Amino acid sequence: MNRSYRLSGVALALMLAQAAATAAIAPDVAQELMKKSGLWGQLDSLGGQVRGGMENAVPNGDAKVEATKTRMLACAGTAYGVDAMRATAADAVAGALQPSDVSTLMAWYDSPLGRKVASMEEASTAQAIDPQERLRRGSAALETASPGRKASLEAIVAETRSVDIMADTVIEMAIAVRTGMASADPATTPSALADMKADLSSKRPLLVQRYSQLALPAYAFAYASLGDDDVKRYADYLAAPAAKAYNDDAVRGVARALTDGSVKLGRCLKDATAKP
User: Is residue 19 a part of any domain in this protein?
Assistant: First the structure.
């Protein structure tokens, strides 16, 4: 009887595995969703942020420091290349999203409001405005916003999980910089690097808390010209199961792309340092 139960368990596991495999969407569909949602372009921006953060974090110095910085940035250009990051994120989305969710997502992104929201988000990101000025304007917009609009904006912040992406990006930038500097120090051991990564990751809750305070005025600024009814419609869409699933998969994809970049960076720096 025990053998029968074990066989039944194996059969059930195989059935579940098969169901999971058939639930994956096609890679080209995942890429189309990423493009329509803005994630495709965002990954290009994220890679640039990591590389820019590394460049700004390492001060100019003597020949040894400059050599380390040059080597680090060269490796970062490859490790956080946009094509590789997009491929990793698309794989995460394609492997987790249910095919039944696609029609709901496409209907939103192809709708007039969906296209308008995407356009506003892209325009807000592209605006060359000082971050403090952006927050000041967003805070001013919140002061005059109705309770309903504030509630919708809070829901958008929560559902898009942009705060998680911001926290992950900052952590990966810090890890990348320290990994790069450690590559020039022969005394740095793998365990020391692991401890450093664990220490930075432990600060994630504090980063999330900090960015949560900044996200609301940032979103208030981005959607300043969107009416209250449309803001609520957007919030309602994000609360739908299909939208929740896609946002979760998108955050997972971004985190995986950043982590993959960090691994590639460490490998590149190790190989570069080993060369005579």
Answer: no
DSSP-assigned letters across all residues of 144-190: HS-HHHHHHHHHHHHHHTHHHHHHHHHHHHHHHHHHHHHTT-TT--H
Nearest in space to 261 (alpha carbons), one of 23, 88, 102? 88
Number of structural domains found in the chain: 1
Lowest mean pLDDT among 3-7, 73-77, 115-119, 182-186: 3-7
Residue 2 belongs to a domain: no
Comparing 187-201, 215-229, 242-256, the range with the smallest average pLDDT is: 187-201
CA distance 31 to 140: 37
Q: Assess whether pLDDT exceeds 60 at residue 251.
A: yes
Sequence-ordered list of residues with C-beta below 8 angstroms from that of 97, at least 6 positions apart, any chain: 23, 24, 25, 30, 33, 245, 246, 249
Is the sign of the CA dihedral 125, 128, 131, 133 positive or negative? negative
Per-residue confidence at 28, pLDDT binned at 50, 70, 90?
very high
In a domain, 8, yes or no: no
What is the spatial distance between Cα 131 and Cα 209, in angstroms, rounded to a whole number? Answer: 18
Residue 122, domain extent: 25-274
Q: Give the residue ranges of DSSP H helices in 39-81.
A: 39-57, 63-79
Q: How many CB atoms lie within 10 A of CB 112?
A: 8
Which of 25-39, 61-75, 184-198 tops mean pLDDT? Answer: 25-39
With left for phi above 0 and alpha for psi between -120 and 50, is residue 161 left, alpha or beta?
Answer: left
Is 238:155 a contact under the CB 8 Å cutoff?
yes
Q: Is a pLDDT exceeding 80 seen at residue 10? A: no
Find tokens 């993959």 and name the residue: 260
Instruction: With respect to residue 4, please indicate whether it lies within any of the assigned structural domains.
Output: no
